[in-house]
Amino acid sequence: MKPLILTPKGVAPDAPCRCSSGPPDAGDGCGVLDAAPACAKQAPLSREIPGYQILSCVTGWIETAQSAGRAIPRVATRLGPLDRLGALGVRLGIGRGSYRVAPGLYAVGEPDSESCVLVTANYKLTFDSLRSELAGLDAWILVLDTKGVNVWCAAGKKTFCADELARRVDAVELKKLTPKRELILPQLAAPGVSALEVTRKTGFRVVFGPVLAKDIGRFLENGKKADASMRSVPFGLLDRLLVTPVELVAAWKTSAYAAAACLALGGIGPDVFSFSRMASQGGHALLAYAAGFCAGNFLTPALLPVLPSRSFTLKGAICGAAAALAWIMYYSASQAWSDLGAQALIIVASSSWFALNFTGSSTFTSPSGVEKEMRRAIPALAAALAAALAFWLLPRFLGY
Amino acid sequence: MRGLLYLPGVATLRLDRDLCSGCGACLTVCPHAVFEMESGKALDSARDACMECGACALNCPAGAISVSPGVGCARAIIHGWLTGGEPSCDCGGPSDCC
After folding, report:
1. What is the pLDDT of residue B1?
2. Closest to B4 (Cβ–Cβ): which among A156, A208, A305?
3. Which helix (H) or strand (E) holds A61?
4. How many angstroms away from the CA of B4 is the closest CA of chain A?
5. Count of structural domains within chain B
6. Using a CB-CB distance cutoff of 8 angstroms, which residues of chain B are in contact with residue A305?
7. Confidence bin at A33 (pLDDT 50/70/90)
8. Residue B47: closest C-alpha in chain A
9. What span, in angstroms and rounded, lies between the C-alpha atoms of B2 and B32?
10. Could you write out the DSSP letters of every residue in A154-183?
11. What are the helix (H) ranges across chain A?
12. CB distance B6–A190 less than 8 Å?
């Protein structure tokens, strides 16, 4: 496990010299620099630890009477280019499993013992979206070890839980730092955190803040009261499209199998197998799968609220049917009716399947509902694929 | 204003109004405004909006709410079927967290 996110610039701003302040004979490799007395005697103690690098968002260190000699990293409230690059990467599914910050206590602004304590997850995208909303505020940020998973999912997995919170409050000696005994948790931590249990274990009161970090300023101004708009989870067009790339990454394995099957079936014919037929007819089958993939992964999420039916598989089937209709109109002159039927079924079935998978990215589906939907949809999808196979193969062997 | 709704009549959410103390914790933690306050007690007036996250049941001091919590994710449920274990999603994090 990586204890810290590595950054190219690893030196704390208040450590201008690479030389330690220890004696010259300490054998720390600073022998040459030790010849310069100004460096050797006046440099403050470096915060570097062998094997670690300091986060690029750390702008300084806070040492208060209450922090008992500990230095608490102060983080920027503006995101830097590295943060943006990392965010783009994880949206595309790159390095998403290890995009984390070290759990523990951080600060923004100039917090003191009266400042509020905001609790969050150690997924760096979560940490970044919180700190970027705290410009002008003085606050402590307590980061829990949620294994690099965002607040809501971590609460669901019970890694964002009362036990972890109590352990972290102890580990950072929060009681010494703030006499207020109050923790502000994101509302979406509630599926994992029992507020009463936290109070019983730590003596701290839990206040559930807003769902989104962007409302935290308004929440604090309101006297730590969230209005209805801060309490519900939005799932607008942009939200829906932002989560689709990750769905695509998750679908690569399915897509590889589907591509292989399309190409193999394309090559089959009365003379057993032909590579030229694989390229042309298999290519068309693959293209049909790609059309269904786009209908299910892009069109369905984009049109989610306006599509009839509440079932995701039906929403996907509707988008797939629209795509299939366009497909048939385009290819009606050049392809056999049975092939068109098989391709249309592939489009509808794959669109429906990927729409069903989008339940995992949505913010309002219940496990009972998804299970009910799947028990109906999976036999229907299997039947559609069997029919597509029959449309495809029968004419080739019966010689229609 | 209500947002997107999923399949009606499936949520396992149960509220025992006789036990409810009227503290309002469920109104605070629910991400889909399922509850409202009616004559000093909670009422699950929008049960079809429930996504079974379990926040209300976990934070109800009176123990008046029960729900079978989980993730509404097809991939997680398939994972559960295939492995015979609990539904588990792969979102974020290496396999050691799932």
Report:
1. 45
2. A305
3. strand A58-62
4. 7
5. 1
6. 4
7. very low
8. A366
9. 8
10. HHHHTSSSHHHHHHHHHHTTHHHH-TT-EE
11. 37-42, 81-91, 124-131, 151-157, 162-171, 174-177, 195-202, 216-221, 228-231, 237-242, 244-250, 252-267, 275-277, 283-294, 300-303, 312-331, 337-357, 367-398
12. no
Nearest chain B Cα distance for residue A365, angstroms: 5
Residues of A in contact with B31 (CB under 8 A): 187-188, 211, 231-233, 363
- Of B7, B53, B93, Cβ closest to residue A369: B7
Packing angle, helices A162-171 and A195-202, rounded to 10: 30
B50 chain-A contacts, CB cut-off 8 A: 366
pLDDT in tens, A269-286: 777 777 877 878 888 999
User: For the domain with range A57-233, which CATH number is right: 3.60.21.10, 3.40.50.11600, 1.10.1040.10, 3.40.50.720?
Assistant: 3.40.50.11600
A–B interface: beta-carbon pairs under 8 A: 158
CATH number (domain holding residue B21): 3.30.70.20
CB-CB under 8 Å, B49 with A360? no
Determine, yes or no, domain membership for B92.
yes
CB contact under 8 A, B93 and A147: yes
Distance in Å, alpha carbon of B18 to nearest chain A alpha carbon: 21
Helices (H), A224-274: 228-231, 237-242, 244-250, 252-267
pLDDT tens-digit series, residues A346-355: 999 999 999 9
Computed over every residue of chain A, the mean pLDDT equals 86
Residue ranges, comma separated, of all CATH 3.40.50.11600 domains in chain A are 57-233
Classify residue A319 as exposed, middle or buried by CB count within 10 Å of its CB (0-12, 13-18, 19+): buried
pLDDT band at A310 (very low <50, low <70, confident <90, very high): very high
Q: Which of A29-33, A96-100, A199-203 is predicted least confidently?
A: A29-33
Domain-embedded: residue B66: yes
pLDDT band for position A398 (cuts 50, 70, 90):
confident
Q: Do A370 and B74 touch (CB under 8 A)?
A: yes
Asked whether residue B5 is domain-assigned, the answer is no
pLDDT digits (tens, 9 = 90+) for A140-196: 999 999 999 999 999 998 999 999 999 999 999 999 888 889 999 999 999 999 999
